[in-house]
Amino acid sequence: MIEGIFVLASSLLFYTFVGYPAIIMTLARGRVGIPPSLGTLPSVSVIIVAHNEEAIIAAKLDNALQIDYPPDRLEILVACDHSTDRTDEIVRHYARWGVKLICLGERGGKVRAQDFAFQHSTGEIIVFSDASTFLKADIVQKLVRHFTDPLVGCVSGEDRSLSSIEPGKVEDEGLYVRYEMLIRGAESRLGCLVGASGCCFAIRRALWTTFDPALAEDFILPLLIRQRGFTTVSDPDAIAYVHAVASPQEEFARRVRTATQGIMTVFVMRRLLNPWHAGSFAFVLVSHKLCRFVVPFVLLTTLLTTVSLAGRHPIYSAALSIQLVFYGAALGGWLWQRKGPRVISLPLYLVTIQCAILRAWIGVGLGHRYATWSPSRRLYRQHASEADPCRFPS
Question: Which CATH architecture has domain 46-276?
Fold first, then answer.
């Protein structure tokens, strides 16, 4: 029985991180997902949510004003979620360039701020972008061209991590992001993308809907759009750059928050896990999201079963040795404060993700919610010269 549990757990790990990506990329091979250029450009509203972002909001708006799109078809709105610093004051200085400031009278959280700004917007297409995200000048054109297909309801940009003073951490994050983008790209070409990038994504105005603000908007919206018969796609050329989180502690807190919202979203939208209701989309949702959320429990099961089986056969001893080396490397990365070589920093990064998911499960069980949020501090000043998207590498 223990051997069976070990085989099941190790097989699920392999499937989640190797098997499913291989399957989805094979199925998507040869598929082309980039549509032709638009004839008539739709009107676009770019909505930026900010809470106490005085350190970065000016650079963000400078970046947004460089978007290459006809000015008479583009509006930029900043939804300030009851900031207590100089964020509102700074945004008001940009009114001369057409930036609209939308202030919430009390703290409502990111989703409520987005909804409030939506009510004041006019665009046929709504683009959501974080204050901590910097966009390439052509990103809006790249996003909106997909809406030539009447079945496309949501379009996601592609995340890119910027360098920082903690190269080991960010290189690991960048590697993981590239891995995730490959999977998303394959899902997009198959018309079954299960989530969008929270850094930057676009939806049709008619498809915006209100939902529980404790859920992840970049996850719940594509699922709700799917229920209405539309698809979500990703454009690898619609690039959004993200600065590194300033500290491992804040990065961990951010991952706990996003994992909590993701788990709650899966629970709320659990009907889409049923293949008799959602068809092949259920396979993608289970494989990409649900399997990822149960990995911490699978890792623990694998470790415990290999400890029990280690003396029975050399293969189990080898499996246990591999796990101990991996976790030992992660511990070494923690002791070195993530500044060691990748051989120890990458295991730490991966273990940190799983610890955050496990902590999120505990929070969900205790009824924790994240309707409001405090933006993570990021390493902005090291990249002041990179605020111009034209200077970013392709």
Answer: Alpha-Beta Complex (3.90)
